[in-house]
Structure formats: C-alpha cells, structure tokens
Design goal:
The complex is a heterotrimer of chains A (368), B (601) and C (462). Chain A has 3 domains: 34 residues, no CATH class; 205 residues, MetI-like fold (Orthogonal Bundle), CATH 1.10.3720; 59 residues, no CATH class. Chain A has 14 helices and 5 strands. Chain A has 368 residues and is mainly alpha-helical. In chain B, 28% of the residues lie in helices and 21% in strands. The radius of gyration of chain B is 26 Å and the shape is globular. The relative contact order of chain B is 0.14. Chain C folds into 2 domains: 117 residues, no CATH class; 242 residues, MetI-like (MetI-like fold, Orthogonal Bundle). Chain C has a two-stranded antiparallel sheet. Classes of the chains: A mainly alpha (368), B alpha+beta (601), C mainly alpha (462). The interface between A and C is large, with 54 and 61 residues.
Chain lengths: 368, 601, 462
C-alpha cells in the first residue's frame, strides 16, 4: 500500500475509534461483579475505590476543561494531574481552559474526515450525474418535438400555479396534477410531419452551469451563508458539497468522452452488448482510478475549506474542537506554539496524503 | 477596598479617598526619567474594541460614543470623577432647586462661546430641551427623562439665566443634565422649525407632532446618518473637533485652535494633547504586540487576562502605568422566566430549575480561567461597593448535589440514561436542553459560555452555546425569544434604578427587563424606592428588593466588572477613575522631560 | 463574435450569481426589519406608537415588494403591505393564524400571551395597546415573503373594486372579469421588485435600504472603495512576487538538478504544497512578530501609513513595505511552490525538444538555453493557471487579511458576515463573482492565442 493510503487509513482508524482512544469515561468498569461499559452512553455511573476500571489511552475528552491545568500548559510544563501519574499527563499541552490538545487533535481528525468525506461525496454525486449525463447526451441525439416542448412548458407553469394559488386539499391538487400529466402524454403522442423538433443540448447546458458555479468564490460564499444561517455541521457539508462539484463534472465528462472514442468501446457497442454490461465492464473499471483521484482532490479541498472556516470562526459550533479552531486559539495567544504546530502538522500531512493519492490516480491532472 | 498593587518606580500612588471609603481616583506618579524609545508627539493613541453606533449628539447608545462625545460637546453639568458626584460644566455653579423641587435654576458662565464666536445663551438650552423632547427625535435612552420637563423659562433681564420647570419632582431631574450635549440653535434648527413651536404646544396632547410637516422635515434631517458621522456636522462646545472617522479603523479628534477654555482660567477645563486617536484593535494577539511595542498610549478596553499577563512583563511596566479598579457593573446569565411554550419549551418558569442552574454554574473556575481570578463574584444586582448592597445574600456555590436534588424535586429525571434529564409535559417527553446566547465580539465570551455549559452538563442539563452579534442578541433578548443569555450590565455610583431591569412595564414595553421578573409586589416596591426620601428607609427597601430578586433567581450573577486602566508613562498628571470612562485623555500632559532628552541628544 | 458572446455570458452569470445570493440572503427576513428601524430617520418612539409608520417605512424602502417579481400566471402577487388593516390587528391575526400552515403555533403564542397577562401581572391601563403590539411583533418577526403571499390571498377574497386591485392594474392591464382567466399560464415580469431596486440603488448610490450598509450607514460603494484598493494592491504585488520567484526558483533548480540537495528539495515540494496558508501565517507571526521571540516585522497592518493616509501614493506604499512582508509571504507561499514544480516539469518536457538540441549543438550553455529559449515556452504553457491565480488569491486574502488585520475585502466580508450586513455581503459577492468569471473569459481568450502561437513555433521548428 502506498504511504498516502496509509496515512489516511491511520486518520480514519483514529477518527472511528476516537471515543475508545480519548474519553474521560472509563471503557470498562467492574463493580460488584457487574461489568459495565460507561463510554457507550452519557448517563451517570458510580464506582467505588476498589472497583476495577479501564481508562482509554488518553483519559480526556476533546473540549472538556481541566481547571488545574488551565492557561496554556506547554507539553514540557509542570502539570497538576491525577496521582501525578504519567498516564494522566497532557502530552501535547493544553488550551486556555485546560483542554487536552491531543484529544482535540483526535476530535479534529474526526470532524475533518466527516466534513471532508460527506461534502466531497455530495460533490461526487452531483458531478457524476452532470458529467456523465452531458457526456452521454453528446453522443446520442435527444430530440423533442415542438408540440411536446410547448406542452411541457405549459404543464410546468400550470403545475406551479396549481400548487401556489389553488386553495384546496392536497388530494385534489394531486388529482389535477395526474390529470394534466395524462394530457401531456396524450399530446406527445401526436406526431406532425413538419415538426422536426429541437435538439436538447445537455452538454452545453452542463458546461455553462459548470462555469457559472466555478465563478462563485467558494470561501466568500460559505462565509456569507454561514454568517446568515445557523452554524452547524450539516449546513457546512451541504455548502461545501454544493460548491465543489465542478471539477469532478468536468473531469468525468472528459474521461467518459475519451472512453467513448476508444476502439474497445465501439467494439462492445457493435457486438450488441447491453448498456449495463458496457457500464460495468468498460466504463466503471476505466473510470475508477480517475474517480479516486478526483474524490481525493475534492476531499482535500473540503478539509482545507473546513479548517480555514474554523480558523475564521465560521465553522462548527462552539464546543466542537477542530484543527482550525485549535490553530485559531494558538494564534490568539502568542506563546502557545503547541496549539499551532501539532494540529497544523496533522492537517498538512492529511492534505499531503490526499494529494499523493490524487497524483497516483491521475498524474496528468493532479501533478504539481 | 483593596485594589491590585501596581509596580511603581519611586513614588507611591496617591489615593484619593471618597466619602464611602471606596477609592474613586488614583493619581499616578510622573515619570522621573525619559526613556529614549518613547514618542515625543503630543498625541494620544487610544485602543478601543469596536466602532460606536454613531456620533450623534442625542441619538445613540454605545459606550464608546459617550466616551468620544465628551471631548466634542459641552454640558451644563459634568460628572465629578474625583468625588463620584456632579460638578458645574458650562454653568457658573451647581443649580438650585426651588418650588418643591420642581424648579431648577441655572446660570451659564460668561465667555463660553460656540465655534463661530457667539455666546451660549439660554435659548440654546431651550432648543436642546425641545429637540430632545420631540417625539420624532430618535433618542430612545433619554426620552423618558425629558418627558418630565414642562418648560424652560428664560430670565427676562439676563439671557444667561433660566429655570427649568418639571412636571413632578424626581431623583433624575438633576442627573439627567450630566454630560448631556448642548446643541447650538442656529446650527441645528435647520429650517427654523422650532421657532414657532412652544413648550405648551409640545406638552399638549392635542398637538400631534407626527403630522407637523416642518417638524417632520427637521426630524428627518436631524436623525439622518450624516448628523452622526460627518465631521462637518459634529461640532459642539468641547475642546476637540472630529477630524476623521474611518469605519472599522479609527476615530481621530483634534484640538480646536480657538476655544473658550483657553480664556477661562480654570484647570478643570484645560485640555493638553493636540490629537486623540481612538483605534480599533480586537484581536488579543494584536493588542498585546501593540502595547509591547508602544503603539498605543492609553486604553480602558484591554481584556482582564491580557492586562494581567502584560503586567508580568518588565518592558510593559517600564513604559506604562496600569491598574485594575473594581466598578459597579456585573456580568450575568439572564433566564427567560416566561417561556411561551411555542418558541421555547416551558422549562425555566420553574424556580427550582433556575436555582439548580445557578448551583451548577462553575463561576469560581470561570473567573480563575478567563479573568485570572481578578474579578470578584456578586450575589445580587447591586455591587458590594455600594452602601445599599444587601450583604446578607450568600453567593451560590458550585454544588452539584444540591442542583441534582432541586431538579429531581421538580420532576426532571434522566429516565433513558442518555446524560440529559427529561420530563413528560403534555404527554410529550421534553429533554432539558437550553440554548445559551453570547456575544461573538471577543473570544472570552465563548470560553465563558463553554465553561458554564460544562458545569450544567454535570447536572445532566444540556446547554447549547450559540454566538450572536450584538443586534441579534438584543433582538432575541428584548423580544423574549431565548432561553439563556449571557451579557453584562453597567451602572454608576448614582442611585440604583430598579425600574429598568426589574419592572413589569419594562417587560411589556420590550425594555431591559429581559427575563420577565416581577409582579404586583415588586412593582410597588420599585415605586416605593423611587419615592422614598429618607436615606436609611430607602436602603432598607432596596435591601428588600435585592432579596426579592435573589429569591426569584431571574439571573445567574457571575462577577463584578473591573476597570482596566492603562496609560503611557510619557504623560504626566495621569489619573485613573473608578467611574466611566476611567481615564480623561484630554488631561494627559506630555512630560516636560522630553525637552531635556532632546538637548542631550 | 465569440468574445462578445462570452462577455454577455459573464454579465448574465453575474446577475444569476448575485440574484441567487440575494434570494438566499434575503430569506432571513428579520434583518431588513431591524435595519429599516435602525436606518430610518423616524424616531423609535414614533415608530412604536404609530404602527402605520412601519408600514409606510416598509413601503418607502420597498420591502413590501417581493424579492423577485415574476409570475407565471395571470395573477401577480399584489404589493399588499400598503393596504394592511392596521385598525383591527386581533381579527387580522386570527385570520392569519387560520391561514398559515403554522396556525396552531401562532395561536398558542397569542393564547399564552393573553393568559400570561391575566394571571400574574399587574395590568397596566394600556394593556390592550400592548397586546396589539405583541401580536404585531409576532407578525413582524415572521417571514415577510410568506406574509405578503397570504395577504395576497386574503385580498383575493375582497371584491374586485377594492383598492388592492388598483395596484394590479397599475402593473399590467389584466381583465380579471372572469375568474378562470387567473389560471391561464402566462409570463409576467415586473421591474418593481427588490432585486431590481437593489441593483438600481447600488448603481446610483441611492438612499434605498440595499444601497447602504446596515451597520456603517455608508453607501456600499464608498464602504468598498478603500478595502478593494488595499486588497488589489496586495494581490497584484503577490502575483508579481509569485511569478518572479517561481521562475527563478524553477530555473535554478533545473540547472542544478544533478545535485543531491536539489533532489531532496524537489521531493519536498509536494509536502510544502500541502501546508495550508494560515498555518504558515500563524507560524510566521509566532516567529517574526512575537515580542517574546523576534520582533522584526509588524503583524498589525492597521498601523501602516498606507491605511492612515487618505490618498494612496507610491511614497506611502514604500513607507509601509515592512507591513507587507508577512502577509505576502503567507499568501504567496503555496502558489510559489505550485508554480515552481509546474515550471520545473515543463522545463523537463521542453528540454527534450529539437530546438534545445540544436541550441546545445551550437555551443550554448545550459543557463542561456534555459533563460533565453525554454523559459518563454514553459511560461506560456503554464500561464493558463496565472489567470486562475487572481480569484484564488482573493479567496486566500480572506484568511490572510483576518490574520494580519488588513482592512481589505476579506476583513470586510468577515465583519459583514458577523453582523449580517446583507447589502455589503451581496455586493462583495457579486464583485468577486464578476472578477472570477472575467478571469475565466480571459483565460479562454488567452488559451486560444497561446495554442496558435505554440503551434506556429512548432511548425517553424520542424
């Protein structure tokens, strides 16, 4: 396995096992002969002095204050920890409120991966649909008769009016809608000799849409919208996904068009292979490395955007610790280098790994 | 009061004792040696946190606005920062009450002139009162006081003497003139709208001001944005005039060339720096770097923690005087006592829940972490520095056991063991989740909110901290659309006004009673306090009122505010005041030592 | 002809982007309400006593108009706030409650208010008025667009001769004698909408609600002027530095590529590119602007003579050069790494071509070949990215300006977003969108030119 995958796998494992690795609740608690797992829920638990308990590797949770070690304790400072044991030490220092930086970094990895993966997945779906759609529509001819077009426009308008202005039950609205759809189907059956129809050029629409969305400045857009609406992880994922699909659509379209011009594709088509067979045997295997590359690239972009937004203070909620928010806190106090260096290193290495994956997937597009 | 000790060079800080044994002014020693790194410019660079809302003489509410305006405008009476009461401003002596405390007679000092050289007369005062009284003027915060003014009677023989007639005797009748800007009639009466309108007309309910066309024209011009931002428009009796206001950057005011104070032989009216620049610096890192490299000369706006850190620094102490001074304000968490059941769940209408939240707030830890333990906790709405403070009220400790007990008692139990308490309300399981809104201006608020949320989490109450900008916070809080709101309240050494925060009228009228505290008993008590003239009786009543507030727990009181004063040592005769604004920048004199140093060089 | 089409497309995309953002941002309808009261020349007191003043203010600022005004039926939404029945709020509230989807919620609020006032409160004499005000507030805090819509429905029930239809007649003469004609699909566009109002306001620096910043009360144009200039200066200097440094670095690295140190630098470039700019900025501030470490360079741009002076001249620019160092390093770092490695690759590509071989045979040194012949072609082939650099740098400037407190566009964006200053936000947004779209077009134009040029050189050489 390449080193890029190794690093990402490491971050993924850390993120998935985050509650097991860093938690202020014990993993296993044996009291009165009963075995409990307090880390699984948030409810209260009780234990005596002679009870056996197994604490996680890092006995702190991200963002939870430790008032004994408050005010930016560096990794080398004298720390007042439980029993003075090395186990309870804050190995990478603390923040103003005494939060453990290592636990914060683990939580940051979790949020970075969640936001990065989900938003790039949203972009991937939009990009795939539009890119593949335009690539296929450029090959096959899509014609629609004038009569059909006019009927469609009228149907849309009528449906719109129906839902906006008619004050009646939903059932009647639905009935009317079904009726009008039926009318449209009837109309589209009529074929006139002189009506040669218009060609629907989906490719052109898609390319213009791509340029349009590319001209939206991503950071400006997300900051503006996050400032107006409620800040939260779902809004962030949606916004980053909505502004990140253009590159994917462009690359996917180009690649599918390239495959379509290949001899083996034409051969498969001539031999009468079904659409599903062509897709599964020709398209997907050939697209796979490229898809991995674009996905990794947009993943990296989303992680970087999330970190920048957290750094600007427009990211997640106040009690969610991310790499960007740690660096922000480090920047605000002059001496806490450990708040800048460690999260920054994790962020850089994560990005480097993703870029290397992208480069391996397609050296032409994502090489530096 | 024991105040934090500042490192001083040779002389000891001279403390001027006020009558209530609380130090109101600290005059600082002059520098004995001139440091070559010090700037020789006779200009003061002041650090502030944000822009004022405007610089309009009457309309506006922000603190920074008041701070800047006091150098631009003159007033009949000024605050005496040294003694915590009032002193005459442009009038010769303090005014005298007569006719059952309903008449107040002023006499303006001779030789006080506007920029165009005209003498200030009683006509200007009458105009100021009319403009402030007018319904169309946008001065929300002062309208209440001016509604009580009935007439301004100008002495027939002397146009410098006049009597203000009030509708009723009130304790605000004198303080309302304190630092209130006087407007020049010829300058501000743009279309001579006020020439025809008399006080009898203004008091007449049959005279509808909103339909008078010339008044509407005047009001639209007077309330206009230019009036609060344009350097040409903002002029007054003050020794300084606005030079430039670059939004988000700085406000600079320069000393007037010909000002009446140069002719009046009184040290109180003297001003020394040629230019005062108020510069915005919000980022703590920037503030710290700027003070260490001497870019700023004075401030009252540094975060407590930062000033504490700076005071540990030798370079900073070499260049600056600095001190923490306890004040009367406090920070709090307001709780919505009357949730409407639609926008908010019916959670905080229960006194037990409110008290339990107070028991589960880690206020001591908060002060220790966020403010380095410098601020002191308060138990009620009146600062412990005041005589009328009810010392019997006990601080509520961080006591999870008691909090759990109270919550259990009112039926909130963690039935599904998910770490959040819940209860069945109207056949629906409602979890105890509350939203805490705080300002997004400085990072300290966020840390405070999170610490409070953590403490309450330990009592299985879920708090969601949400950052807001000031207008949104204000909108939410005054329309009672919130659960918990963190904020701060400033008061002065003047008599405590309970009606603003605790009267029901203030709740209905969307005033400052955000919580919905109050009932018939508390309202009548507030009225009784306002009317009581006997001092000891009044203190008794006030203590009773504080007890009432304490028992109802509309607020979780956090800590008393502390003034953080910093002045550069290159200025002589610097004084720190407990009252707002803390430092009078116009009284700072550049140390004469700088001349010697230039000779040596 | 093609370029004209492109320009038309840019303008169209500008309108679409701005319109999209406008619709999105206008969705938060509480803020215009606050802004209108804070911005007005009416007094707060007068506003609170006379509710009809709100209505007239709404009309004055055009907030009663829909955000976009086009209808696809013969029925247009009337501008109804004007005709709000202010006399009987309670009846109206109940009517409105029954009409909205959220009727129960609204009714609950109203009920709880009533019981609340009766139970534990001292009833003031003006209770009725206050109740009305409370209900008013409920109405005003709801979404104005939905409200408008329901008003429209409400007025449809009125007789045809009523005032509300006078407006419709003013917009477009439609014969509404027969009710069925309402449902005929048709396209109506009315220029009397908020978006059009905002556009005309913004262009003419007018007094409308969207022409002025809601916080500073300045016209949006004047609020943007200086920040734009400062950001432009920084971006242009950064671009120059990126081009110069990446050309020099890549050429020198290429000439000494046999050395071991250079090899490690080349492989390190990939990692350097992954370092985010704000991490570099924070480190730079920590090292170079920290009073406890090395206080060599200033980190606070707001003290630069450039910001202090009214007019920006070359002298003030040169005076404040120290203030530019850290921001420009932060902003240019990633791009320099990117361009260096890209130019390096194209050097390698070009070096295998025939004209280089012939030059070598003529006895030219490697250095002259690189700087004289290869550089030109290499820069041409990677110059497409230069056009995308400008919008990218503008985005990067948001972070950098926030970090060094530079009063540029990025800082303005952050403060506007924090205080929900919608006019400034939309204008900024449209501006940057326009610049980005413009750079796309320039890129397109340039690519054609370069393609032609490279082809011609190739033909000549072969």
């Amino acid at each position: 396995m390449k080193w890029g995958y190794k690093i990402i796998l490491f971050f993924v494992i850390v993120a998935m096992l985050a509650p097991l690795i860093s938690n202020d609740r014990p993993l296993v608690l044996i009291s009165n002969g009963e075995i409990n797992f307090p880390f699984l829920n948030h409810g209260s638990y009780a234990f005596g002095d002679d009870d056996l308990k197994v604490m996680p590797l890092i006995p702190y949770r991200a963002g939870v204050s430790d008032f004994d070690n408050a005010d930016f304790k560096s990794p080398f400072d004298v720390q007042q920890v439980k029993n003075n044991s090395m186990f309870y030490r804050h190995w990478l220092g603390t923040t103003l409120r005494g939060c453990d930086v290592l636990a914060g970094i683990i939580s940051g990895a979790r949020y970075a991966l969640i936001v990065g993966f989900c938003s790039s997945f949203v972009s991937l779906i939009i990009g795939l649909l539009l890119g593949a759609g335009s690539a296929f529509s450029s090959v096959s001819v899509n014609r629609i008769s004038f009569l059909q077009l006019i009927a469609l426009v009228f149907l849309l308008m009528f449906g719109f009016n129906l839902f906006l202005y008619v004050q009646s039950d939903l059932l009647i609205k639905l009935l009317l809608f079904v009726l009008s759809v039926g009318c449209w189907i009837l109309v589209s059956r009529i074929k006139l000799k002189f009506d040669r129809g218009v060609r629907l050029n989906f490719e052109k629409i898609e390319s213009q849409l791509t340029i349009l969305f590319s001209s939206i400045p991503r950071l400006f857009f997300v900051v503006a919208v996050m400032g107006i609406f409620h800040q939260g992880i779902l809004t962030l994922i949606f916004l980053l996904g909505l502004t990140g699909w253009m590159e994917i659509a462009r690359v996917v379209r180009a690649e599918i068009q390239k495959i379509q011009s290949m001899d083996y594709y034409a051969a498969a088509k001539l031999s009468g292979a079904s659409w599903t067979r062509i897709t599964s045997k020709q398209l997907i295997p050939n697209l796979k490395p490229l898809l991995i590359a674009v996905f990794a690239f947009s993943f990296a972009g989303a992680i970087l955007s999330e970190a920048s937004l957290s750094f600007l203070g427009f990211g997640l909620e106040a009690n969610q610790v991310t790499w960007g928010s740690l660096i922000l806190e480090g920047k605000e106090s002059f001496n806490a280098w450990w708040l800048i260096v460690f999260p920054g290193f994790c962020l850089s290495s994560c990005l480097a790994a993703l870029f290397s994956i992208a480069r391996k997937g397609n050296n032409d597009i994502y090489s530096l | 009061m024991i105040v934090f000790v500042v490192a001083c060079n040779s002389q000891k800080t001279k403390i001027i004792e006020a009558d209530n044994a609380y130090s109101l002014a600290y005059s600082l020693p002059n520098a004995s040696k001139w440091d070559p790194s010090w700037s020789k410019l006779n200009e003061v660079n002041v650090q502030i946190l944000a822009d004022p809302d405007n610089l309009h003489p009457t309309n506006g509410s922000s603190q920074i606005r008041d701070e800047v305006l006091q150098y631009l405008h003159g007033a009949l009476i000024n605050t005496d920062l040294y003694h915590g009461n009032m002193r005459p401003g442009i009038c010769e002596a303090m005014p005298v009450f007569s006719n059952n405390n309903q008449w107040l007679t002023f006499k303006i000092r001779k030789g006080i002139t506007w920029d165009d050289g005209n003498q200030v007369t009683a006509k200007d005062i009458a105009f100021t009162v009319k403009a402030s009284k007018c319904n169309l003027t946008n001065n929300v915060s002062n309208k209440f006081f001016f509604e009580n003014v009935k007439d301004v009677v100008i002495d027939a023989s002397n146009n410098l003497q006049f009597t203000i007639v009030f509708k009723s005797a009130s304790e605000y009748n004198l303080p309302m003139w304190c630092d209130y800007p006087i407007l020049q009639e010829t300058k501000y009466d743009f279309n001579n709208a006020w020439k025809q309108i008399s006080f009898t007309q203004l008091n007449d309910s049959g005279f509808i001001q909103e339909t008078n066309q010339s008044l509407i024209k005047w009001a639209i011009a007077f309330n206009g944005d230019e009036m609060g931002a344009d350097a040409q428009m903002i002029t007054g009796l003050g020794a300084y005039q606005l030079q430039k206001w670059e939004r988000g950057q700085y406000i600079s005011i320069v000393k007037k060339q010909h000002h009446w104070s140069t002719l009046v032989n009184d040290s109180l009216y003297k001003s020394y720096p040629e230019k005062i620049t108020f510069r915005i610096a919000q980022d703590p890192a920037v503030q710290k770097a700027s003070f260490l490299s001497q870019l700023f000369d004075a401030t009252g706006a540094l975060p407590t923690r930062l000033l504490f850190e700076l005071q540990q620094d030798k370079v900073f102490n070499k260049n600056y005087h600095s001190r923490f001074i306890d004040t009367y304000g406090y920070t709090y968490i307001a709780m919505n006592m009357h949730p409407d059941g639609v926008r908010q769940n019916m959670l905080l209408n229960d006194i037990n829940v409110r008290r339990a939240l107070a028991y589960s707030s880690q206020i001591d830890n908060l002060i220790k972490v966020v403010n380095k333990g410098i601020n002191k906790r308060v138990a009620g709405p009146v600062a412990p520095l005041k005589k009328e403070c009810n010392q019997d009220l006990k601080l509520i400790p961080f006591d999870l056991k008691k909090a759990n007990e109270l919550l259990d008692k009112s039926g909130w139990k963690d039935s599904d063991n998910d770490g959040v308490r819940d209860r069945i309300i109207n056949n629906k399981k409602v979890p105890l989740i509350l939203e805490l809104i705080y300002f997004n201006t400085i990072p300290d608020w966020k840390d405070m909110a999170v610490i409070i949320a953590e403490g309450m989490k330990q009592a299985a109450v879920m708090i969601k901290p949400v950052a807001c900008d000031y207008p949104t916070w204000m909108e939410k809080v005054s329309s009672h659309n919130y659960d918990l709101a963190m904020g701060s309240w400033n008061t002065s050494s003047f008599p405590e006004d309970y009606s603003q925060l605790w009267s029901t009228a203030s709740y209905i009228g969307n005033g400052s009673n955000y919580t919905g505290f109050g009932n018939l008993a508390s309202d009548s008590l507030i009225n009784a306090i306002a009317k009581e003239t006997n001092a000891t009786q009044k203190i008794q009543l006030e203590k009773k009122m504080q007890q009432l507030i304490y028992d109802e727990q509309p607020y979780i009181f956090l800590y008393g505010l502390v003034r953080r004063c910093v002045v550069h040592k290159r200025f002589d005769h610097a004084t720190f005041f407990a009252e707002r604004p803390g430092i009078l920048y116009s009284s700072l004199q550049l140390s004469p030592l700088y001349k010697k140093s230039s000779v040596n060089n | 002809m093609r370029i004209i089409g492109k320009i038309i497309f840019v303008i169209a995309s500008f309108f679409i982007v701005v319109g999209f953002s406008f619709l999105l941002l206008r969705h938060q309808s509480d803020r215009p309400l606050q802004a209108v009261t804070a911005n007005s020349n009416f007094s707060q007191h007068a506003l609170s006593v006379y509710d009809s003043n709100y209505v007239s203010l709404y009309h004055q600022y055009g907030l009663d108009l829909p955000p976009f005004y086009f209808s696809i039926s013969n029925l247009a939404l009337p501008d109804s706030f004007k005709y709000l029945p202010a006399s009987n709020e309670k009846d109206f509230l109940i009517y409105w409650c029954s009409k909205t989807g959220n009727a129960k919620a609204l009714y609950n609020i109203y009920q709880s208010l009533c019981t609340f006032h009766n139970e534990s409160w001292m009833i003031p004499p003006s209770q009725i008025l206050n109740l009305q005000r409370c209900s008013n507030q409920i109405i005003s805090s709801r979404n104005i667009d939905t409200l408008n819509f329901y008003y429209a429905k409400y007025y449809l029930l009125l007789p045809r001769e009523s005032k509300a239809f006078a407006f419709l007649n003013g917009v477009k003469k439609i014969n509404l004698d027969a009710a069925w004609k309402q449902w005929i699909p048709a396209f109506h566009f009315n220029p009397n909408n908020q978006f059009a109002l905002w556009l005309s306001d913004g262009l003419s620096n007018g007094n409308g609600i969207y022409a002025r910043s809601w916080i500073s009360k300045n016209t949006v144009g004047s609020a943007l002027k200086k920040p734009m200039l400062i950001t432009f200066i920084i971006t242009v200097i950064t671009m120059l530095i990126i081009v110069i440094f990446s050309v020099v670095f890549s050429a020198e690295l290429f000439l000494k590529k046999e050395k071991r140190g250079v090899r490690t630098i080349l492989s390190a470039l990939h990692f350097l590119y992954s370092i985010p700019s704000f991490f570099i900025g924070a480190l730079l501030v920590f090292i170079f602007a920290n009073p406890y470490q090395l206080q060599i360079l200033p980190a606070n741009f707001s003290f630069a003579p450039l910001v202090e002076n009214d007019s920006i001249s070359l002298i003030t620019l040169l005076d404040s050069w120290t203030y530019f160092v850290l921001p420009i390093i932060t902003l240019s770092f990633g791009a320099i790494v990117f361009f260096t490695s890209m130019l390096f690759r194209s050097f390698e590509e070009e070096f295998s071509k025939n004209y280089v071989l012939s030059a070598k045979m003529m006895g030219q040194s490697n250095r002259t070949i690189v700087y004289k012949f290869v550089l030109k072609n290499a820069v041409y082939s990677s110059s497409t990215f230069l056009f995308l650099l400008f919008p990218a740098l503008l985005s990067g400037a948001v972070v950098v300006e926030q970090m060094f407190s530079i009063a540029g566009i990025g800082n303005l964006l952050i403060t506007a977003a924090r205080s929900q200053d919608i006019p400034v936000l939309i204008t900024l947004f449209g501006l940057i969108g326009f610049v980005t779209a413009l750079s796309f077009i320039l890129l397109d134009y340039f690519q054609q030119k370069i393609a032609g040029r490279l082809l011609s050189t190739k033909e000549v050489k072969e």
